[in-house]
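[job 4471] stage=fold_predict status=RUNNING
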Amino acid sequence: MKHLAFFLSLVFAAGSAAAQGAPVRSEGHAIVVPPDQVSYGPAPAVLPPGAELAVLEGKPAEPGPFTMRLRLPDGYRIPPHYHPAIEHETVLEGTFQVGMGDKFDPAALKALPAGTFPALSPGVHHFAQAKGKTVIQLHGVGPWKLVYVNPADDPQQRTP
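[job 4471] inference complete, writing structure tokens
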């Protein structure tokens, strides 16, 4: 009965905070973010323009656990890159196409439909493209970083 009371108080707290559009953190450090309360904003400048990001847990740029979602428009491309830490993803919507290597090769893309879970070891060079509106969830232990194989591909290096 004690567990049921805790669960119900968590659900009630989640409903109250969700109405305010914020992730919920209770005494037990539980976070509940209903799908209709995920709040997207522009993705970080390290990603090409057009993606949207929602941080569900933690602070991805800092040490510690994080969970975030990327919403990508159809045809969105991420040039060859790698991450210094393991990358865990779950494809939630659409098809995320991923290829391995140092050059973007459309023929090397493998389709990862909704429900797919890829995990890439640190340093694995890969590239990606969205087929249809695509949402992926990334989680891991920060700081999260994306390093382009070719520094000229980094949108932050381009001058307006």
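[job 4471] summary: The longest helix spans residues 2-19.
[job 4471] exit 0
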